[in-house]
Amino acid sequence: MNVHATSRPDIAARRMTLATDLDGTFLGGTDAERERLYSWIEANRASVGLIFVTGRDPEFIMEMCREKGLPWPEFVVGDVGTTIAEVTADGHVTPIAKLEEDIAERWGDKGELVRVTLDGHPGLTLQPTAFRYRVSYDLDPADFDANAKERVAEMGLDWLISDNRYFDVLPKGVSKGPSIRRLVDHLGIPETRVLCAGDTLNDLSMLESGLPAVAVGNSEADLKARLDGCETVYHARAHGAAGIIEAIAALDLHDTPKGA
């Protein structure tokens, strides 16, 4: 399986690169709106780069591309920023060791310590996936004991609540924002040619990173409030995929489909 056309120019030389969250953003909107965005990307691969920046793990991402027909990204910032990887021509996600060394050092193999410390904590249910540099929980806001935040801080780690239903424990200082900036710098992409897109609080660090960004129309209210006054963020009216197209046109990053 060949997912990349060898004739594509280097991603740094393209007119723009979309760095997008998945759930609610790239996967948001109607079927027609998603098809419109995906078809536009495929028709403009020579001038549009694609990076997925998501809380999802690489296995899920590749499954979505293989089975759901998503455009294949060329790079992935996954696991809420704790994975930075390249998508190879045969459809595999290969971590970029140089960019992950600092993440691994900050994590310090504390996964088991986190699981033991938060075992049975009110409002938290451990997710079954074994992530490399994070531990993730489903959150029940009605039962959640906020003391979990202090316990995570005492371990020298960061916590992140998103969509009021997920609780992630991450290496100190690691999230989507720092990781996408690290990847953009590594690839030599001019910052003005990047568009970051998101819709929940786990996208906050990416959207306020200083790169051009869009909070799509269906973004959670807390995210919109936190981004109020941030000059590098465009607040779209349209939801999901349509909000991305709206931002590309509004910011004049690329020609967009007619009617955008």
Structural notes for this entry:
Helices cover 34% and strands 21% of the residues. It is α/β, with parallel strands linked by helices. The protein has an eight-stranded mixed beta sheet, sandwiched between helices. Strands 6-7-9-8 form a four-stranded antiparallel beta sheet. A hairpin with a 4-residue loop joins strand 3 and strand 4 (83-87). Helix 2 crosses helix 10. The two termini are 33 Å apart.
Keywords:
alpha/beta, four-stranded antiparallel β-sheet, eight-stranded mixed β-sheet
In short:
With 260 residues, the protein is an alpha/beta fold. 34% of the residues lie in helices and 21% in strands.
Question: Could you outline the blueprint of secondary structure elements for this entry?
Answer:
Blueprint: E1 16-20, H1 22-26, H2 31-43, E2 48-53, H3 58-68, E3 75-78, E4 83-87, E5 93-95, H4 97-107, H5 111-117, E6 124-126, E7 135-139, H6 147-154, E8 157-162, E9 166-171, H7 176-187, E10 194-198, H8 204-207, E11 213-215, H9 221-227, E12 233-235, H10 240-250
Parallel strand pairs: 1-2, 1-10, 2-3, 10-11, 11-12
Antiparallel strand pairs: 3-4, 4-5, 6-7, 7-9, 8-9
Helix pairs in contact: 2-10
Sequence stretches where pLDDT stays below 50 over 5 or more residues: none
Order of helices and strands: EHHEHEEEHHEEHEEHEHEHEH
Helical coverage, percent range? 25-40%
* Coarse morphology: globular
Q: What class do helices, strands and sheet pairing give?
A: alpha/beta
Strand content: 15-25%
How many E-type strands?
Answer: 12
The order of strands across the largest sheet is 5-4-3-2-1-10-11-12
Assembly category: single chain
Distance between the termini: 33 Å
* Helical segment count: 10
Mean pLDDT: 94
